[in-house]
Amino acid sequence: MVKRSFSRTLVVASLLAFSLQLPASAEEDKSTVSTSIETLLKRVENGDAQAQYEIGEKYLKGDGVDQSPREASDWFRKAADQGHVKAMSRLGSLLVALGDEKMRANGIEWLNKAVAEDDADAMVSLSKIYFTERNPEGKPDLDKVRELLEKAEAKGAVESLVLLGALYAEGRGVEKDVAKALGYFEKGFAKGSSESALALAALYREGVGVDKNPEKVIEIYKKAVELGSGVACRRLAAAAASGFGMEKSFEKAVEWLNKGIERNDTTCMREMARVKFEGVNAEKDIDGAFELLDRASGLGDLEALHDLAGFYDNGIGTEKNEEKASQALYTAAVRGLVKSQFELGLRYRQGTGVMEDKVAAVAWLSQAASSGSADAMLVLGMMNEVGEGLPVNATAALQLFQRAANMGSRDAKLRLGAMYFDGRGVKVDKPKAYAYFLMGAGTSDEGEAMLEKVTAEMTAEEIEAGRKIAEEMSSKLQQAAGK
């Protein structure tokens, strides 16, 4: 069980997550040297593609300029348009990481162009895309993933080692072989890969193929920090906070978070923002929390964008500005953050920070619902039920409430109870209505009141039948959740 948990976490973390800190995970480009931004700007006046590429690198890393993935992508595009292969690779990766579906498709095109020119970094980036369903074929292609990674390894791409190790750790597209995975991770670590270091630490943490060794885990994390890993700083902060492999110390945890912030790790920024906002073991620092979220947002962190919207909505650490809140949510929603899609749908429904637009509300709520948001399903069901922004459709409302109820929404269960009790969109079925009211009531005063009201209108036989239905449905939901 532990092995399964480890390998699934590793593959998801290594293959699915596109880090904005691309230079830390890709091999150092030997063609670039430390050149001032002023000198590079003079060179680009003559259309120097290498200079355009190097400016893009500076904006990507925050080297002598404010870090800005968006600005970096603009410079990479200029160089890529002139045939600069490394720029094609960087541009493709950034568009996939930061863009909407249209930009993502354009990013894949650029990566394919770079792969055609034998660029190993592009091979690695493209392999990550083919591991998911969001590629031109619409489904994972593990043979393609392995083929790209093996070609990248043959060309010396260090990042390919951790990804190949992840495949063997879980047996995705290859026969599961933990020993082989260990070998890939150790080889990558020896070559200076912080990602391989993190993967190796995970083996020692979970005891997969090796004995559990908390002290070894901490040792590897510290070496990963030396290699520039912000993620390792985050892990060390968690270890210090919990006392894993080291003495428990809140001060040390904060120290490691700050080291991660120095390395532009946006999760460290968000966690430190939480510490400052809540005043954990110190005075609250609301302004500091806002600044960290704003910085993380600028680096493309979607969770930070979502949190920043709450600060603008409530005037926390900044002036109250519902329009800026909506802009932050829109950016995160377009790039796929489900909870931002849901919140944006609510704002269009209510006209908060945007012009009221029921059609836009339905569109964003539908997108969130299709991505599994039970809250969005519930609200969409309510809108279908009364004809808000779309025609009245009791059948659609019933289906949406059912989906939300299956995901645990108590409010959806109460809505279903009411529909079965009144016969809206379905035949009257008082026992089934009672079952939904029973499951949805919980500790809610409103739910208890609704249950009490319908109970008074039902026979003892109907109530008993309803109890049995509730038990059966609860059992089926628990079985489904356990699969």
Structural write-up:
- This protein is mostly helical.
- Among the domains are: 337-407, Serine Threonine Protein Phosphatase 5, Tetratricopeptide repeat (Alpha Horseshoe); 419-483, no CATH class.
- It is 72% helix and 0% strand.
- Helix 11 (178-190) packs across helix 12.
- The protein is globular, with a radius of gyration of 26 Å.
- The chain starts with a helix and ends with a helix.
Give the topology, please:
Layout: H1 2-16, H2 22-25, H3 37-44, H4 49-61, H5 69-80, H6 85-98, H7 101-116, H8 120-130, H9 142-154, H10 159-170, H11 178-190, H12 194-206, H13 214-226, H14 230-242, H15 250-262, H16 266-278, H17 286-298, H18 302-314, H19 322-334, H20 338-350, H21 358-370, H22 374-386, H23 394-406, H24 410-422, H25 430-441, H26 445-455, H27 460-482
Summarize the structure.
With 483 residues, the chain is mainly α. It has helices spanning 2-16, 22-25, 37-44, 49-61, 69-80, 85-98, 101-116, 120-130, 142-154, 159-170, 178-190, 194-206, 214-226, 230-242, 250-262, 266-278, 286-298, 302-314, 322-334, 338-350, 358-370, 374-386, 394-406, 410-422, 430-441, 445-455, 460-482.
Report the β-strand fraction as a percent range. Answer: under 5%
Structural class: mainly alpha
| CATH top level assignment of the domain at 337-407 | Mainly Alpha
Which fold name is given in CATH as the topology of the domain at 337-407?
Serine Threonine Protein Phosphatase 5, Tetratricopeptide repeat
Number of H/I helices: 27
Mean pLDDT: 88
